[in-house]
Design goal:
By secondary structure, this protein is an alpha+beta fold. It is built from 4 helices and 17 strands. The strands form 4 sheets. Strands 3-4-5-6-17 form a 5-stranded antiparallel sheet, with no helix packed on it. A 5-stranded antiparallel sheet has the order 7-8-9-10-16, with no helix packed on it. It has a 5-stranded antiparallel sheet with strand order 11-12-13-14-15.
């Protein structure tokens, strides 16, 4: 027969369950630390994700602070003064965890913060947050080793952020930049091409200048007269006298190599906070 708690004991049981829910146990080195997360009881969980075998939660506390709680580390990332954040992408890569958080602003509705976690070390980058260059949403991709955020829309000046082994670089979207440079090269070739006027007959100049046989002429064309033999000339002495000046070589016009504007961005250091 199952045991049932008496009516007076039920509030105590519920209180005990709540306390156990807010209880925090973390392993730091060889030490096991037991604490108590008061915000676990009062905060509003906005999103929940799995990062490996552990859980990650985006929450808003009773004091309207936005935090990311890392249950495997029992630490908090304070997102600071942001409005309506949302976790847009989360990845576990070799040696690192990446969390991309959508942090819209009035000037940049698609701004993001990218958090890089390596153990208890955290770096943060602001991406897609330059006014005038942040009007496109981002899409994310990874091959299991590297990570990329790319502006949507297919604009010629679209941007890409590429993360690999703790380094983040920004650049023009390579596909769009290649198309833009190809278009410039085609324009240069058109501008530099010779523009020979057609003849009155409509034929190209080379064809218009070719001799045309007269209609009705009978018999074979007269043989060309042999050229008179030229008297042999003495060889020019190997000296610089009498030589015509060398003409500069025309190397032609070449399209410049694509400049994708690759820039490495330094991360800002972020401190992990203990749960309280």
């Amino acid at each position: 027969m199952p045991l049932r708690a008496s009516a007076p004991a039920r509030p105590a049981v519920l209180l005990l369950l709540l306390l156990l829910t807010a209880c925090v146990v973390s392993q730091q080195g060889n030490r096991t630390i037991v604490g108590f997360d008061t915000d676990e009881l009062t905060s509003n969980k906005l999103q929940t994700f799995q990062l490996g075998a552990a859980e990650v939660v985006l929450r808003r506390t009773a004091s309207q602070q936005y935090q990311i709680k890392l249950y495997d580390r029992m630490k908090l990332i304070d997102l600071g003064r942001v409005e309506d954040p949302r976790v847009a992408d989360i990845q576990r890569l070799p040696g690192y965890d990446l969390i991309a958080v959508h942090t819209p602003t009035r000037a940049c509705p698609y701004a993001h913060q990218l958090y890089e976690l390596s153990g208890y070390q955290v770096g943060m980058w602001s991406i897609n947050s330059t006014p005038g260059k942040c009007s496109q949403p981002l899409r994310f991709s990874t091959d299991g080793k590297a990570w990329m955020a790319q502006q949507e829309g297919g604009r010629a000046d679209g941007l890409v952020w590429f993360w690999s082994e703790g380094r983040l670089t920004s650049m023009l979207d390579p596909a769009q930049a290649e198309r833009r440079n190809n278009g410039s090269a085609a324009g240069n070739r058109t501008a530099s091409a010779p523009r020979d006027a057609p003849s009155e007959t409509g034929a190209p100049p080379a064809a218009a200048s070719a001799p045309v046989a007269r209609a009705g002429a009978a018999g074979p064309a007269p043989a060309a007269k042999p050229r008179p033999a030229l008297a042999s000339q003495p060889a020019t002495p190997a000296s610089g006298r009498g030589k015509a000046p060398l003409k500069p070589l025309d190397a032609g016009r070449y399209a410049p190599l694509p400049d994708n504007g690759v820039t490495e961005i330094a991360p800002a250091k972020v401190t992990l906070h203990d749960v309280k």
